[in-house]
Amino acid sequence: MRRYDIIHGPVVTEKTTLQKEIDNQVTFKVDKKANRVEIKDAVERNFNTKVKQVRTVQVKGKVKQRGRIIGKKQDWKKAIVTLMPGQKIEFFEGV
Q1: Whole-angstrom Cα distance, residue 94 to residue 4?
Q2: Structural fold of domain 3-85
Q3: Could you tell me the pLDDT band of residue 13, with boundaries at 50, 70 and 90?
Q4: 64 Cβ partners below 8 Å, 6+ apart?
């Protein structure tokens, strides 16, 4: 798996914004098959930063209903990446 295929994009919510400001953590939506070592390597190489810790969470897709039709959103994986002190990701600075 290539390092560009591992990270799908950032997760930007009120909670992740507070985590970024207080704990220097950023949250990404990642490939379901990627492990912590691969995620750490991908973040360090793609964003040119140093990573202290990676935590992963399997997020279950929500059940949605539209009239009589019931469907389910896809399950996905979330990675909470703690950066070393003094490090930041420029991608999140304007958000």
Answers
A1: 22
A2: Alpha-Beta Plaits (3.30.70)
A3: very high
A4: 70, 71, 72, 73
Using alpha carbons, select from 17, 87, 79, 92 the residue that is nearest to residue 42: 79
DSSP 46: H
Q: Tell me how far apart the alpha carbons of residues 95 and 13 are, in angstroms, rounded to a whole number.
A: 10
Q: Is 44 helix (H, G, I), strand (E, B) or coil?
A: helix
pTM metric for this prediction = 0.86
**Helices marked H in 1-95 — which ranges?**
3-6, 14-23, 36-47
Instruction: For the chain, give every domain's residue range.
Output: 3-85
d(CA 40, CA 49): 10
* Nearest residue to 33 (alpha-carbon basis) of 52, 62, 5: 5
pLDDT at 94: 56
